[in-house]
């Protein structure tokens, strides 16, 4: 690799790092092919603190109030799932980075609401990634217990979206 190519690669990596920061991304991966046996693979990432509970949308008060009474003792037995939805085995996580939409189009009713029964494969929400609307199906049948993300909120790969039990 020539020094000129090396300098161009360094500038390219700096530009990726700036793109990462400007768009508030946690990871970016690019492969640049120069020829048949010559390429550059770059992965730029940064750590972010764990998402604060403030980021998660709380269900309506009427849906939450009846649940704490009977759940109070089991919640004490499993504080990790009560405090961190990502650790809940019933959490549906985002398969990609993008923007979440809870309705099929503006003004339409939500795909699902807290308390709804869902079937396996039923659309729960949409994650828009690179101008493509990706329907996120339910991985199992059950009841929507919590919706953890707000409409039009950005989401990272693996972030918890809903709890379905």
TrEMBL record:
Keyword terms, alphabetized: Biotin, Fatty acid biosynthesis, Fatty acid metabolism, Lipid biosynthesis, Lipid metabolism
Alphabetical list of PROSITE patterns matching this protein: BIOTIN, BIOTINYL_LIPOYL
Superkingdom of source: Bacteria
UniProt pathway annotation: Lipid metabolism; fatty acid biosynthesis
Disordered: region residues: 65-92
Pfam families tied to this protein: Biotin_lipoyl (PF00364)
Residue span(s) of domain Lipoyl-binding: 79-165
Bias (Low complexity) ranges: 65-86
InterPro entries referenced in this protein's UniProt entry, alphabetically: AcCoA_biotinCC (IPR001249), Biotin_BS (IPR001882), Biotin_Carboxyl_Carrier/Decarb (IPR050709), Biotin_lipoyl (IPR000089), Single_hybrid_motif (IPR011053)
Record NCBIfam families: BCCP (TIGR00531)
Functional summary from the UniProt entry: This protein is a component of the acetyl coenzyme A carboxylase complex; first, biotin carboxylase catalyzes the carboxylation of the carrier protein and then the transcarboxylase transfers the carboxyl group to form malonyl-CoA.
Protein name per Swiss-Prot or TrEMBL: Biotin carboxyl carrier protein of acetyl-CoA carboxylase
């Amino acid at each position: 690799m020539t020094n000129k190519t090396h300098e161009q690669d360094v500038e390219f990596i700096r530009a990726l790092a700036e793109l990462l920061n400007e768009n508030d991304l946690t990871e970016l991966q690019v492969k640049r092919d120069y020829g048949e046996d010559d390429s550059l693979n770059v992965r730029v990432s940064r750590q972010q603190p764990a998402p604060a509970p403030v980021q998660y949308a709380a269900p309506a008060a009427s849906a939450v109030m009846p649940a704490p009474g009977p759940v109070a003792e089991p919640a004490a037995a499993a504080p990790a799932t009560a405090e961190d939805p990502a650790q809940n085995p019933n959490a549906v996580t985002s398969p990609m980075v993008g923007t979440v939409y809870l309705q099929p189009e503006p003004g339409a009713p939500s795909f699902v609401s807290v308390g709804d029964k869902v079937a396996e494969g039923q659309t729960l929400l949409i994650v828009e990634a690179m101008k493509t609307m990706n329907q996120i199906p339910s991985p199992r049948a059950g009841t929507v217990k919590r919706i953890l993300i707000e409409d039009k909120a950005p989401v990272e790969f693996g972030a918890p979206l809903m709890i379905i039990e």
